[in-house]
Design a protein that fits this description.
- It is globular, with a radius of gyration of 20 Å.
- Helix content is 66%, strand content 3%.
- A two-stranded antiparallel sheet has the order 1-2.
- It has 358 residues and is mainly alpha-helical.
- It has one domain: Voltage-dependent anion channel (Glycosyltransferase, Alpha/alpha barrel), CATH 1.50.10.
């Protein structure tokens, strides 16, 4: 998804406007594409920064299984194995994207300036905020360092993107779920803090919670308005619809981590998460049967994992309904993320990176 350039057609021919305000075209130059076919390393020029969403999804799933171990006594090795997989995925994607920076810096610049894909540069920063959760028991110092780097980077990135939004006239067609990532990603700031043992961090937790939830409401409204009154979003962006549930699922965990209580407001966030999942999951299931796999499908991983985490935290209060919903969300997130991981690894082994990134 991040390897596509959105070209506005609003001011051009009527037939183009009728088809929608924007179309997607590959931004990898023909000579780079030809070189990618000859040299395996050059295939990394097509690596999208949004693939860091795989790290987010795996880390969230590991946290969910850790909660399942505490609540239901599931094997502890499952959470540990998923945590290791998340760290390995981060190292692999980070190394791959570093190669892309060296080989095709112009593609990286185009990706960052893109009105949609540029927002996904928040995914590696969110990964840095989440990885300290499985890493803290093994290396508390490294976990603290990663969190500090992610917190600083996420705050600066959110400031840059909000300034971009307010400095330039935006197009309604660009208001896609990816817009949620840069600022609402600050909701991930408090999640790892309870396990890091850092002093005087309550103000930081309140900052992340306040900014994330405050921006979630207008961004959610803008995106839903665009979905209602504009042309349907392109097929490559359809999986990102599930991101709409992420602010409320992550907001639940962030609020509970900050306040230490599952009160009425937290329960309301969880209820809204379930409603959005009920609306979005059937649409994505229908779309999944007709759309070929792309790495953009990783956009569904973290919202599902975050929903499972929220359900398991709420299930700490005994009840067969809460337990049943929590286990259903955990099973769904596990199956989907496992499929995404296997399909991605198989595609990478076959040299399909450029195809899967379109």
């Amino acid at each position: 998804m991040s390897n596509l350039v959105l070209e506005s057609r609003t001011a051009r021919a009527p037939e183009t406007a009728q088809a929608g305000e924007s179309v997607l075209t590959a931004h990898v130059a023909p000579d780079l594409a030809a070189r990618a076919e000859r040299d395996g390393w050059h295939q990394l020029e097509a690596l999208p920064v949004g693939l860091f969403a795989s790290v987010m999804g795996l880390t969230g799933l590991g946290v969910a299984w850790d909660l399942a171990h505490a609540r239901y006594g599931s094997p502890a090795w499952i959470a540990d194995a998923i945590g290791w997989a998340a760290m390995a995925a981060f190292v692999a994607v980070a190394l791959g994207y570093t190669v892309k920076v060296v080989l095709a810096p112009q593609a990286v610049r185009a990706e960052f300036r893109h009105p949609i894909a540029g927002n996904l540069f928040g995914t590696p920063l969110i990964s840095l905020l989440l990885l300290p959760i499985p890493l803290a028991p093994m290396s508390l110092g490294l976990a603290r360092a990663l969190w500090a780097l992610g917190a600083f980077g996420m705050t600066v990135f959110a400031w840059v993107i909000v300034n971009r939004w307010m400095s330039e006239r935006q197009q309604a067609a660009h208001a896609t779920p990816a817009w949620i990532v840069p600022v609402v990603g600050l909701l991930d700031l408090p999640l790892a803090l309870p396990g890091l043992g850092l002093p005087s961090m309550h103000g930081v937790m309140v900052f992340g919670l306040a900014v994330g939830l405050f921006f979630a409401v207008p961004l959610f409204t803008l995106i839903v308005s665009r979905l209602l009154f504009e042309a349907p979003i392109p097929a490559a962006l359809q999986p990102s619809l599930l991101i709409l549930a992420a602010p409320f699922a992550v907001g639940f965990s962030s609020y509970v981590a900050t306040t230490g209580a599952v009160d009425l407001f937290a329960q309301s966030l969880y209820a809204l998460t379930l409603f959005l999942l009920a609306v979005l999951l059937p649409r994505l299931a229908r779309f999944g049967r007709s759309c070929p796999f792309r790495v953009a499908w990783w956009a569904v991983s973290f919202p599902l994992a975050a929903s499972a985490v929220a359900g398991l935290k709420l299930a700490a209060e005994p009840g067969w309904v809460t337990d049943g919903v929590a286990l259903a969300l955990l099973a769904l997130a596990t199956l989907v993320i496992l499929w995404l991981l296997v399909r991605t690894l198989r595609g990478l082994a076959r040299g399909e990176l450029r195809t899967l990134s379109q």
